[in-house]
Amino acid sequence: MTEKRSSFTGKIGFVLAAAGSAVGLGNIWRFPYLAAKYGGGIFLLVYLILAVTFGFALMCAEIAIGRKTGQSAINAFKSLDKRFGFVGVIAAIIPAIILPYYSVIGGWVTKYFYAFVSGDAAASASDSYFTGFIAKPFEPIGWFLIFMGLTALIVLFGVEKGIEKVSKVMMPVLVVLTLFIAGYSMTIDGALEGVKYYLLPDFSRFSATTVLAAMGQLFYSMSLAMGIMITYGSYMKKDVVLEKSVRQIEIFDTGIAFLAGMMIIPAVFAFSGGDETALGKGPSLMFITLPKVFNSMPAGAVIGAIFFLLVLFAALTSSISLMETVVSIVRDKLGWNRRVTCIVVFAFCVILGIPSSLGFGIWDFVSVAGLSILDMFDFVSNSVLMPIVALLTCIFVGYIIKPQALIEEIEIGAPFKAKTLFTVVIKYVAPVCIVLILISSILDVLGIMKI
Ligand code: TRP
User: Fold this and answer.
1) Which of 372, 365, 436 is nearest to 101 (CA)?
2) pTM higher than 0.85 for the full model?
């Protein structure tokens, strides 16, 4: 490659770009439904503990690897140790698995934005609206193709800078609106039970599955264990204080996820009249609960339309960055031009995305242990591949290049305050926990599988 590697301008530029990749459907759609499903407060607690230990250490490690080598994932591992190039390869596969089903959900968001704009807001609050929609064979695929097509066009024409600018303005608006909706949700009759469920941990619901789910969510939400943060790190200037940037990204990402939970979980209680099965709705939770919230609120149709538009932008910035990653890996490996690569990646996503969409309708008989096709893609990437990549990254940093090599990188600019935490987590705590969790989840799968 003859192109000069560009870098982020200014100190805040890095944090904004990385946060733009991190904040997306993971925070607003995925986090609340997992928290609802896995016991509320206990999930939140496990998630927070993992975020300040695992998440922190792994993000520091990945960004430092990127900045140290100045290369993206595959080459970064290889350049530090030839034998570990394969870690970068596994990491590179993950965005390709996520992108198709991410775009199916992006399509649902697009549909809801359209429904709110076209006067369907009240209808969307009924119980059967969403289930009726996703069970249809063609309509959800149409919305998926719109979302995927938009992503592909933006990547093809290289206009993501424009989208990023818009979304930088929209993100703060999204935060304010989420705050407002969360505040409103809590005032609905019966919501207080939900606030308790979400904030007070019930230790009897703790299990290895909770930890696995929280860990997968952590990787997903912070775009970890898939090479993304290595690439971002390779663009980071040496004078940016790495530790501080990681803290800022974490606070931002976790803050939005927390608020999204506040917006959705109390409302689930309020509208289901204490029926606990409403909590287990999985991927559909946000689309079932939020329209009810908007419907009960003054000017709810307008607020709902604005909300879904903002979420659409958050989803687009993430899908663009996912597709950009896949495209650049394919181009590096196969040397194709940008246009051909975009078309091939688009076709690949359509082929994987259509079954994910049909899995909620005419293909709903394809199901393993209650998981739909979309859930299965999600499971393979988040609960299998990402923990494996995270484990290999820890072994690589802890025992091959040694933590000190990265600590030196992190300390350029400012002392690394959490140095000991970093070393202990990377060398001992994370590898042991990940192995235990993987074993227990495999046993789960072989046994009754209660993921
Ligand atoms: N973190 C993103 C979210 O919360 C999703 C995501 C996972 C992502 N991996 C990524 C986004 C890679 C951009 C690039 O929605």
Assistant:
1) 372
2) yes
